[in-house]
Write a structure and sequence with these properties.
mainly alpha, Hypothetical protein af1432
Length: 192
């Protein structure tokens, strides 16, 4: 692998940043989906008080979305909606949404970004918090879509005996989604 000439970014040249761009693009193409799938699989194990682990919860969510006829983008979003839990439990929705954002529609991004507060409708009141916190978004065009996502693919996805599909069922969809061109590409360095 070719490497850059600098040790401090301020000393980089256009050629250096061309190398980095090439290497990042190749690494993304070869490994991004694997890293994401690995992060999802790392959620297997601890129940954290739930009837199923977070990995099974996500598989159950995606299984329901697929069986409900959602498009592949929403199925993958359902699969990954809680992938931020292990590293950012307090803002897991934002983490999952930002992982998906370059590859999904604004609608899908918004639903995943806000599902945490919308999910609170089902339990915030048990913790002394505002069960209706999601009402702050009532006038948003995707309010009903996010509420439906939580009702159909989140709050009900803790069943011990649900006929959950295996990860292999979703892997091609994950690979296809993350093979898409980013909606926010990095600037390209072209040497004249």
């Amino acid at each position: 692998m070719e490497t850059v000439s600098f040790e401090h970014m301020v000393d980089g040249t256009p050629e250096d940043y061309e190398i980095i761009g090439r290497e990042l693009a190749a690494h993304k193409d070869d490994h991004l989906a694997d890293h994401i799938l690995g992060t999802l699989q790392a959620m297997a194990g601890p129940l954290l008080g739930y009837p199923v682990d977070r990995f099974q919860h996500c598989l159950q969510s995606a299984s329901r979305a697929l069986r409900n006829g959602e498009d592949d983008e929403m199925v993958v979003a359902a699969l990954l909606h809680d992938v931020g839990d292990p590293i950012a439990p307090e803002n897991h929705s934002a983490v999952a949404a930002d992982i998906l954002r370059p590859y999904v529609s604004d609608r899908t991004y918004w639903i995943i970004r806000h599902h945490g507060v919308f999910q609170g409708y089902y339990y915030f009141h048990h913790l002394g918090a505002d069960q209706h916190a999601r009402e702050a978004f009532r006038d948003h065009e995707w309010f009903d879509d996010c509420a439906a996502f939580c009702a159909e693919y989140d709050q009900n996805c803790f069943e011990r005996n649900y006929d959950t599909l295996p990860l292999e069922e979703f892997e091609p969809m994950v690979r296809d989604l993350f093979a898409r061109s980013s909606r926010f590409p990095l600037p390209q360095v072209t040497l004249a």
